[in-house]
Fold NUDIX domain-containing protein.
Amino acid sequence: MTPFDLTLVHDEGLDPSLRALERHAVRAVVVRDGALLLMRTADGALKLPGGGVDDGESDETALRREVDEETGLAVTAVDGCAGVVTEHSASRPDDAQPAFVQVSRYYRCRVGPGSGRTALSAGERELGLGAVWLPLPEAVAANRARADGPHRFVRRELAVLELLSQL
């Protein structure tokens, strides 16, 4: 499978060449028995499990940590990079840089039993995040219905889910 490489600009008129604060993230693409492992918010928006890579942390270590924290499952194998999404957006007024760039790398993974316990951040708990297994067409439809909603990540995840559905 050829890895995808997408660039999204969230704020109209934003110059992607602006000096930016950059954040790196990893996301898990886990398919089992025809269903995709996803995180669902209380209002039904979906995202792939994952999150920020800490300073000094490898992508694989971050991926294992994030999947465990969000789902309570253990990553048993990382089977390669499925693709990258680079997002450009305006910074908040109190940020030192005029723009924000998030680079999310998506990895094909396998999971097995883990701790069974989640360790969600305050923001993740506020969103009501919980792990679900859904068929890919159902996930695409759910995020398509929420594409204009309050969660910026839906646009990114919808683009990735649509690409995955073409493979």
